Every structure is written in structure tokens, then in C-alpha cells.
UniProtKB/TrEMBL annotation:
<dbReference type="InterPro" id="IPR006204">
    <property type="entry name" value="GHMP_kinase_N_dom"/>
</dbReference>
<dbReference type="Pfam" id="PF08544">
    <property type="entry name" value="GHMP_kinases_C"/>
</dbReference>
<keyword id="KW-0808">Transferase</keyword>
<dbReference type="InterPro" id="IPR013750">
    <property type="entry name" value="GHMP_kinase_C_dom"/>
</dbReference>
<dbReference type="GO" id="GO:0006012">
    <property type="term" value="P:galactose metabolic process"/>
</dbReference>
<keyword id="KW-0067">ATP-binding</keyword>
<feature type="domain" description="GHMP kinase N-terminal">
    <location>
        <begin position="71"/>
        <end position="157"/>
    </location>
</feature>
<keyword id="KW-0479">Metal-binding</keyword>
<feature type="domain" description="Galactokinase N-terminal">
    <location>
        <begin position="5"/>
        <end position="36"/>
    </location>
</feature>
<keyword id="KW-0460">Magnesium</keyword>
<feature type="domain" description="GHMP kinase C-terminal">
    <location>
        <begin position="253"/>
        <end position="332"/>
    </location>
</feature>
<dbReference type="InterPro" id="IPR006206">
    <property type="entry name" value="Mevalonate/galactokinase"/>
</dbReference>
<dbReference type="InterPro" id="IPR014721">
    <property type="entry name" value="Ribsml_uS5_D2-typ_fold_subgr"/>
</dbReference>
<dbReference type="GO" id="GO:0046872">
    <property type="term" value="F:metal ion binding"/>
</dbReference>
<dbReference type="InterPro" id="IPR000705">
    <property type="entry name" value="Galactokinase"/>
</dbReference>
<dbReference type="InterPro" id="IPR006203">
    <property type="entry name" value="GHMP_knse_ATP-bd_CS"/>
</dbReference>
<dbReference type="Pfam" id="PF00288">
    <property type="entry name" value="GHMP_kinases_N"/>
</dbReference>
Length: 357
């Protein structure tokens, strides 16, 4: 067995296709060069230490703690359920992914932990299977009923590409993400409203109720006529977001293939409007940022990214965006007393191991 192993697991951004991954929809995420670093070595007992929360935990049996450690403990449980050997280890976690920014730090942790354990124990797990096990950890063990997007993006991404995934069939393909004169940026709003998880699960439930009311088993069978016939206005809005967002993903795919970045930007704005008005997962602070960004012609498009209720905004803009950001950030800080931060987005490959120095 190896002595000490170091694994880097990337965060993810999502170009478009928000809240469609648990609704049999289409998504277009990619991994980013911001990582959770995981160091692992064999030990007599399980020991996990997080440099972010400055806390550690030791145990012999992997039991739920209702804390950050559950992302690691859940992976031990799920790997064993799938027949993989997991012997005690000492693990140190370090992350440059901001918590609550909508960049999927939890999936980066789950996939990274699973990959690190497999490397330490000396076996290979197919990346798709690793993503599925990590997804089970999040849903069954941690208790967030998320779709597959985050875990797939962290496990399977390829540099300079987005990952087009059909979440109904789990089929995926790589889409070149060469943006010529434009770049992608992420603005961390510095806001994370606490209702995130409970509202997220509520949205899932509302989508299920909408399908039930339309007598459909999947949103892929739903037409605009079906949506129009929904009598409940809330369910109608939720269903409207899902089917129009799926259309936007397919249109964005075509626009990328023909290098039409103006169209890509328009679809980002349209996606945000639907997330704000139909899915109702935005918030005042994020809406303010996007309305300000819209005033600048060099900003081609922007939308809230992630589960919602705060987090980050993904922006497609021309090269001089840093200057625009300074102006918008100043207004935002004056209004809300919060300093947003800007991240220049670089695409990454999926989870990988480096040789310890």
C-alpha cells in the first residue's frame, strides 16, 4: 500500500441547465481550477481533520454526525455497501472552494474522498461509478436530494470542455469551451440564505407534484400545453422553468457549436429570469448584481448559479470585465455592506492524484 497520497478534487460551475438535473433534464457543467486537496495515509483508526473548520474527528465505526464529517463518513459507508474495501486512514482536508458559493464544495469532497480511498486501497473505480456512489452519499447519507450534475462534473470533466449530460439516460459528451474574445467569471455574492436546503427539497417536491397533476412520469414527456393546463400557479411556474431551461440548454449547445457568444449570453440572462420568476430561487442581492451587469454591453450574459438563495453569479463577458466588476462591486457594497469577490474561471479536468513531494 502507498504511503501518503494527495488528491485534488475540483469544484464545478454550470454554464446553463439549473434545477434540471433531478428532473430528467439537460445540463452543461464543467469543473474549475479551484480544488479540495485531500491527503490520505493508512492509520490504525479513522482520523479526519479539516483545515477549514479547524476540527478533527476520530472513530472506529462510521456513524452519522450531522456535521461536515458526514461527507467523508458517508463515502466510507457507501463504498463498503458497493463491495469496496475501506480500511482505517488518516485524512487531512484543505479547500480553496468557498463554502456556500454554489461551486459544489460538497461534491468535490465526496468524489475526492472516494477517489483518494480507492488510490490508497489500491483499486480502480470507474469514474461514472464513483460519481454515482458520491451521489448516493449526498442523497442517502447527508440527506440533500440533489441531482447527479455535481458529482458527474467533478468526476468526469475534461479541461477546455463543458460536459453535456442527459440526466435521464446518463449519457454525456464533451463540448469544446473555447470562447475566443470572451471569458467566464464567477462573482461570489457573499450571501448564503439559510433557507437553501429546505427550499431546495421543497422545489423537488413541487416538481413531483406538477408531474403528478399532469399525469406524466417525466418532464421529457411534458409539453407547453400540459404546463398551461396546470391549475396551481406555483406548480405551473415550476414546470415552466424546467421545460424552458431544457430548451435553453439545447439552444446554448448549438450557439457554442457555431461560436455565437451573443446568443449564449442571451440564454444566460433568460435562464436567470426564469430562475428568479418561475423557480423563485434567486434573491434581492443576486438580482441587483445582474441588473447592474446588464447595463454594460461588454457583459454578454449572467445568471445565478447553483442551488440558489445566494451563492454565485456566472458571467460571460469581454476581456475588460475586471473594470466593470469594480464599479458594480462598489455599488453592491454601498447597498448591502458586503464585498463580493471575482473569480476568473479556468476549466479543469476531473478529480486527479498528484505525487506527494
Amino acid at each position: 500500500m502507498a504511503n501518503k497520497i494527495v488528491v485534488y478534487s475540483p469544484g464545478r460551475a454550470n454554464l446553463i441547465g439549473e434545477h434540471t438535473d433531478y428532473n430528467d433534464g439537460y445540463i452543461l457543467p464543467f469543473a474549475i481550477k479551484k480544488y479540495v486537496k485531500i491527503e490520505i495515509e493508512s492509520s490504525e483508526r479513522f482520523k479526519i481533520f479539516s483545515k477549514q473548520v479547524k476540527k478533527g474527528i476520530e472513530f472506529e465505526a462510521p456513524l452519522k454526525t450531522n456535521s461536515w464529517a458526514d461527507y467523508v463518513i458517508g463515502m466510507i459507508v457507501k463504498l463498503r455497501e458497493h463491495g469496496y474495501k475501506v480500511e482505517p486512514f488518516n485524512m487531512i482536508l484543505d479547500s480553496e472552494l468557498p463554502m456556500g458559493a454554489g461551486l459544489s464544495s460538497s461534491a468535490a469532497l465526496e468524489v475526492g474522498v472516494g477517489y483518494a480511498i480507492s488510490q490508497l486501497m489500491g483499486y480502480e473505480i470507474e469514474r461514472e461509478e464513483l460519481a454515482k456512489i458520491a451521489h448516493e452519499c449526498e442523497v442517502d447519507f447527508v440527506g440533500v436530494r440533489c441531482g447527479i450534475m455535481d458529482q458527474y462534473a467533478v468526476a468526469l470533466s475534461k479541461e477546455d470542455h463543458a460536459l453535456f449530460i442527459d440526466t435521464m439516460t446518463r449519457e454525456y459528451k464533451y463540448v469544446p469551451l473555447y470562447l475566443d474574445s470572451a471569458k467566464l467569471y464567477l462573482i461570489n455574492s457573499g450571501i448564503k440564505h439559510e433557507l437553501g436546503n429546505s427550499e431546495y427539497n421543497r422545489r423537488r417536491h413541487e416538481c413531483e407534484l406538477a408531474l403528478e397533476s399532469m399525469k406524466k412520469s417525466s418532464f421529457r414527456d411534458v409539453t407547453m400545453d400540459d404546463v398551461d393546463r396546470l391549475s396551481d400557479p406555483v406548480l405551473r411556474k415550476r414546470a415552466l422553468h424546467v421545460i424552458t431551461e431544457n430548451e435553453r440548454v439545447l439552444k446554448t449547445l448549438s450557439a457554442l457549436e457555431s461560436d455565437n457568444l451573443l446568443l449564449v449570453g442571451r440564454y444566460l440572462y433568460e435562464s436567470h429570469e426564469s430562475l428568479r420568476d418561475n423557480y423563485e430561487v434567486s434573491c434581492e442581492e443576486i438580482d441587483f448584481l445582474i441588473e447592474e451587469l446588464r447595463k454594460y454591453p461588454d457583459v454578454l450574459g449572467a445568471r445565478i448559479v447553483g442551488a440558489g438563495f445566494g451563492g454565485s453569479v456566472i458571467v460571460l463577458a469581454r476581456d475588460n470585465f475586471e473594470e466593470i466588476f469594480k464599479k458594480v462591486a462598489e455599488m453592491y457594497t454601498m447597498k448591502y455592506g458586503i464585498t463580493p469577490s471575482l473569480m476568473n474561471v479556468e476549466t479543469s479536468s476531473g478529480v486527479f492524484r498528484v505525487d506527494s513531494i
